[in-house]
Structures are given as C-alpha cells and as structure tokens.
Amino acid sequence: MQDGLNMQDWLKMSAADLGRGIDAGTIDPVALTQAYLAAIDAHPHRDRIFSAVTHDRALAEAEAAATRARMGLRRSALDGVPISWKDLYDSAGATTEAGSDLLKGRVPDQDALVLEVATAMGSVCLGKTHMSELAFSGLGLNPIKETPPCTNDEAAVPGGSSSGAAASVAFGLAAGAIGSDTGGSVRIPSAWNDLVGLKTTAGRSALRAWCRSV
Q1: In the chain, where are the structural domains located?
Q2: 15, 184, 186, 198: which has the highest count of C-beta atoms within 10 A?
Q3: Is 163 annotated as catalytic?
Q4: Catalytic pick among 51, 91, 161, 162
Q5: Class of domain 7-211
Q6: Set 51, 86, 91, 168: catalytic member
Q7: pLDDT tens-digit map of 118-153
C-alpha cells in the first residue's frame, strides 16, 4: 500500500494516472504489474479475453521500469504501465494467431515494430488478447477461438475486431490496450464497452489504445 491506496485501487486508475503515480514514486511498477497479473489469472473470463498471458516478460519489464523510475530515467509518461496487445501483433516467444486456426501454433521470434517501440518507451506487456478472426468482423464474434464478453452484457458480443483488447480494459485487466483500426475495429468495441477509443493518423507507427480517462 502506498499513498493511502492499495493495489485494488490501482486497477481502477487510468493509465495516465498510473504513470503519474510511478513518476511521483507512489506506485511501484512491479507491484502494479503483479496486481494486474493476479487479476487476470483470477478472472472468470480470462480465457475468453486473453489468448496468452506473458507473466515472465511483464515482470521483467516492470523490474526495468522500477529501476528507471528510481534513477529518474523514465522513458515516457507511461513507462511502467501495464497494457495488453491484440493478437494481431507479433510478440517474440508468444503465440500470435490473429484469431485464426490458419495460424495455429505460430510463435514469432521478434516483436512487431509497434510493440518494439512501445517496449523501448517502457510499456509493460501483459499478454495477447482475442480478436475477430483475421480482423474481419465489427461484431467481435469468433466461434473458432474465443468471443470475449461485453462489459454491459457478458453474453453479448463486445464489438470488433479488437474485441479482447476492449474487454481487457473494461473488465479491469489492463490499464490500456493496443488494438488496430481500419474501419472501426478500435472505435466499435470501445463504444460498446464504455471506453475511449483512439484511431491514430494513418502512416504513423500507431499506438491505438483504450484508457478510462486522460
């Protein structure tokens, strides 16, 4: 417990507020990451939301973020903040199947550029989230892998194609989430799950994320 808050309080904070707490020294990135991993592991819909949870990677990145924070060398406002990643993005050593059996068992040996950049800026990767198969659905339905729940009706589809990304934030299992959006794949599930969704400018290395507030 730090600054009158306990770890469960941290899980209700925005990504921006968590980053400010880390900067102020009132939030420890390792304890924060452990709290999120524990919440994921204990959640009844874990396997509907996450296709893979990267415990070892997350804790190693959190340790590095904590060291930087102590030394006053934080790399960004979100250095040490745990986020989830849509299963569309390659992540070294973790399955990346894009919600399809066509890519079943595929394990990349290096990160996608956007994940590489985010990691270099200090973000903590909690794991990969389910999505519409090959990103071809605005509903978020995936009968082949898993269909994540909607925060407003757990039996309903959550919107897609970044369905698990939205669910991970809406159910308090990530401070933010990276999705992808060509025709609404971030904005649809964010709206259906009472979140803020951002589609960034085309042609840039885009970090498309949900946060409860900024």
Answers
A1: 7-211
A2: 186
A3: no
A4: 161
A5: alpha beta
A6: 86
A7: 999 999 999 999 999 999 999 999 999 999 999 999
